[in-house]
Structures are given as C-alpha cells and as structure tokens.
Design brief:
single chain, about 270 residues, three-stranded antiparallel sheet, 7 strands, elongated
C-alpha cells in the first residue's frame, strides 16, 4: 500500500478502499477480528469492502472449486467471523471498464490513461454526450478540456494539441466527418481530507462526495468554458455551432479565416 500509515479496517472508507488489494483485505480482517468491537463493526467493514471488491462465499471447499474462482481472478482466503463461524471468501477488485463504473470514490484512483481508455470504450458521441452527473464525477478528479477542429488543423505543429500533450495531458480523438473532437484529460493533484463524502459511518470519511466543496473548484478552475475574446479571430459566418466548438481557453490564434474554412470543409 502507498499510504505512509498502513490502513486498517477501522480507517478504511469507500474512497481509500480503492488503494488496497485483495491480500490486504485478508490481512486487515485477520488483525481486526482480535479487537473487542469487531463484531459490532463487522457489517460496516463488509459494506465498505463490497464498494470496491466483489465478494463470493465459497461454500464447497474443494480444490477444483477453488481453481475455478482463481481462474476468474479471485483471491481465495479464510475469513473468521466468530468462534463458531469460519468462512472461505473469494475476493476480486471491481473492474472500472464502463462509464457507469466511475464514482466520486474511485475517480481519484485511476490514471488519465485509464480514464481515456474507459471513455474510448464506451462512447463515440463526444464529451457532450455524457450525462452531467458523469461529467461532474470525472471533473472532480481530472482537468478536462475539449476542442473540435478540422482534421488537418488539429495536429498543427506547435498548436494547442502539442502544448496539451507536452503538459502531460492524455487525449482521446473522436472523428466527426471532416472534423475531430479532442478530449484532453489530466489528473488533478490529490488533496487529502479536503472533501467529505457521506459514508455509512460518519466517523469514517475521506474522499469526494456528491456535495464536494465548491470552493475547491474555484481554486482549480476548469478549462471547460468559452472565452468570448477568443472568438474574434475567426469568421463566425463561416462556422456554425455544430461544426466548431472549443471548451478550453487558449492563447493560440486559431486563425480560421474565411479562406481556411470554406463551404466544402463541412
């Protein structure tokens, strides 16, 4: 684990649980069961674990059965509940493969490259095709900016595309006819204990919640907004809202003069 102070079941939350792996769960459970308040908190511990892990109780303890679980990437181990109740669990970290897998709790525990992979796998309609709730989740953990340009202008040497990539942004390109929408993503710095998420146990909070601190957004302004001053350098009569859009502020002169964007460019 990457924590300076090792996590325990008591300090585990629905946010930081994404930092641990299956073997950590077995180890923490073994330590926690020796504590006097273990039985009182056991259901809470299971609930937190289930938020990031699949748990299956293995009722037939035979090698051939165990191998089937291991073939599905489950880690198998013994879980002690009380003096007369021992179970065997199969535990597997929940995969983040779909847009709907993204939550305020796990968004800070994936890389920008992983986010781009999830976006690429799930939609082709562009950033605006995502629901507002999904956009909010993503933007709580990543700086997002988009632009839509003609194919031959997107990769202009020294342009915004190059600047973003050189600044550490991952990019997803979505082809829209003769135009391309580029979605740039870069992880925001982690701020420990800056936000509060409403876990089942109010004494165990660490991460982002649906009511995250709006002041943090003010300190880290999103690039997803029009700057009307940037619109002065191109002919609006030649561009429509459907054919051209940019949602990041840019100092680059797009220089889309009438001769650059003719009617046959659409």
């Amino acid at each position: 684990m990457k924590q300076q102070k090792a996590l325990t079941l008591k300090t585990l939350t629905k946010s930081n649980v994404w930092e641990v792996e299956e073997n950590d769960i077995f180890r923490m459970w073994e330590t926690a069961e020796k504590e006097s308040d273990f039985k009182d908190n056991r259901n809470h511990y299971i609930d937190v674990i289930r938020s990031a892990f699949e748990i299956e109780e293995i009722k037939i303890d035979k090698p051939e059965v165990i191998k089937k679980y291991e073939a599905r990437d489950f880690k198998v181990g013994n879980i002690h509940f009380d003096d007369n109740d021992n179970k065997k669990w199969g535990i597997k970290k929940r995969a983040i493969n779909r847009i709907t897998d993204l939550t305020y709790e796990n968004i800070h525990h994936i890389s920008a490259a992983k986010l781009i992979e999830v976006l690429d796998r799930n939609f082709g309609g562009g950033w605006d095709s995502l629901s507002q709730s999904i956009q909010d989740i993503i933007e709580s953990g990543f700086d997002i900016s988009t632009t839509t340009l003609p194919k031959d202008r997107l990769h202009k040497p020294g342009g915004m595309y190059d600047k973003k990539v050189n600044d550490g942004y991952e990019v997803l390109e979505i082809t829209k006819g003769l135009w391309v929408e580029a979605i740039f993503a870069k992880a925001k710095p982690k701020v420990e204990n800056h936000h509060k998420h409403d876990d089942d146990n109010d004494s165990m909070n660490n991460g982002f919640g649906d009511n995250y601190d709006e002041d943090f957004e003010d300190e880290n302004p999103s690039e997803n907004s029009y700057d009307d001053d940037d619109d002065d350098d191109f002919d609006e009569d030649k561009l429509t809202e459907e054919s051209y859009r940019t949602t990041f502020e840019t100092e680059e002169d797009l220089n889309l003069e009438a001769e650059d964007v003719a009617d046959d460019d659409y």
